[in-house]
Amino acid sequence: MIPQDLYQAATNMLTRAYAPYSHFPVGAALLDANGQIYTGCNIENAAYGATNCAERTALFTAIAAGQRDFAALLITGKTKDVIWPCGTCRQVISEFCSPQMPVYLTNQNNQVQKITVAQLLPGAFSAEDLNYER
Ligand code: THU
Fold this sequence. Notes:
Order of helices and strands: HEEHEHEEHH
CATH architecture: 3-Layer(aba) Sandwich
CATH topology: Cytidine Deaminase, domain 2
CATH class: Alpha Beta
Largest sheet: 5 strands, mixed
Structural class: alpha+beta
Bound molecules: tetrahydrodeoxyuridine
Number of strands: 5
Helix content: 25-40%
């Protein structure tokens, strides 16, 4: 059920998280269409609003590396229940990932919930709404 390689990669990122303010580490692992995994952690800032979430770190790392075609995303945190992405990350995920793409919400306590990008952000604002081609 859970892709173990993605889970391990995201879990490893919990140790890389820079979260001195919230003490809430988050890890993400993004699988591309070629089977390569891009990872991310949350990176906070003394000016709190400058914080970057784990999901966006993974996505931006992949985009900057030239990847645009993604197959799955897994998120993990040391949460009691599975972790859900924030609203900003849902919007960014919907920009780059297909509505059908699976997203695995997990924690460090063997809980997993598999959903899709469309379920994360129904009716997402998109390039189509702007009449722009990507
Ligand atoms: N955070 C993430 O990295 N991803 C999420 O899905 C939820 C929130 C981070 C942002 C901040 O560093 C900390 O968790 C607390 O909000």
